[in-house]
Amino acid sequence: MTWHVLGAGSLGSLWAARLARAGLPVSLILRDAARLAAYEAGGGLTLVENEHSTTYPIKASTAGTSGPIQRLLLACKAYDAEQAARSVAPHLAEGAQIILLQNGLGSQDAVAATLPGKNIILASSTEGAFRQDGFRVVFAGQGFTWLGRPNDPQPPVWLDDLQQAGITHAWTPDILSKLWRKLALNCAINPLTVLHDCRNGELQNWPQEVAALCDELVTLLLACDQQEAAIGLHEDVQRVIIATAANYSSMYQDVAQGRRSEVSYLLGYACNAARQYQVKIPALQSLHARLIAHLAAQGLPLG
Ligand code: NAP
Question: Ligand 1 mean position to 238 CA, how many Å?
Fold first, then answer.
């Protein structure tokens, strides 16, 4: 069965190249005819791994000419997911599986509402990749990908494809817990790196600010019935700050490069959830307000 990968950006290309390298059928879905023409002119997708680059001439199309799609990996940003899902909806086969790679929370519900009754699988990845230019992507950091459907313990047979492609993964019925935990880590680290204009490791200079955010995130996770995601959060945040000390967070990089960030699906989502569950989170709300003001001052989208 063909893997249709929508979005030949960083993570989509990383998946597509490894699936193709394993001899599995892959087809890219690109944004429009101009992107398709640029891709075809370049002769394929190039993956750079350990300073070694290989080009894979994976076939590609636009949403309008793709299909029927049995298996779709939606590999765009959270803010593009709903519109991207709508663009492929008419081409989805009966019983199609749709895997959502978006970070944060909120976009998954939007896609599910756009594709009612479809078989949707959620994913949370700690792999790292970035685009050098056009269709050339660097595999920057080994990681792990959790996949799952809430409360479904039965992994699908096609996980064997991921094994074959060397994509380190596991199935979990607790995928929402994984997504919440990653969201909480992101809320405690990424906005502060933007506001303090620093690498992750420099957050060791603001231990009280980090601790206050972690306390509120734990309260919020418990209110949202995410007990497991709350366990040892502060220690995990401190571990990540040290383990990734030399890195700039993804939000820092988005803002520094004048790109839209996924704040609405991370800190914005947390603040909305707190309002819904009537949880008091003054430090997180103040952080959100400061971040929004910073984005506005830079002329960047606020959502
Ligand atoms: P990215 O590099 O910006 O790639 C997104 C791709 O989606 C772009 O190529 C974009 O096309 C494409 N796209 C958007 N709308 C589309 C549409 N309607 N039809 C076809 N293509 C469309 O983003 P990314 O870094 O891969 O991130 C994807 C998700 O993975 C995010 O939620 C991110 O937080 C998460 N994630 C990323 C990493 C990482 O290391 N990169 C790690 C963990 C999680 P254009 O090129 O035409 O704009």
Answer: 28
Q: Which residues contact 224 (CB under 8 A, 6 or more apart)?
A: 180, 273, 277
Domain limit, last residue, from 172, 192, 223: 172
Ligand 1 touching residue 82 (CB < 6 A)? no
pTM of the model: 0.97
Reported as a single tens digit per residue, the pLDDT across 204-263 is 999 999 999 999 999 999 999 999 999 999 999 999 999 999 999 999 999 999 999 999
- Active-site positions read 182
**How far is the first Cα of the chain from the last one, in angstroms, to the nearest whole number?**
36
Number of domains in the chain: 2
Residue 99 CA to ligand 1 center (angstroms) comes to: 14
| Domain final residue pick, 124, 144, 172 | 172
My answer on whether 146 and 219 are in the same domain is no
Which among 4, 268, 20 is positioned nearest to 165, based on CA atoms?
A: 20
Q: Are 7 and 103 contained in the same domain?
A: yes
Q: Is the pLDDT of residue 133 over 90?
A: no
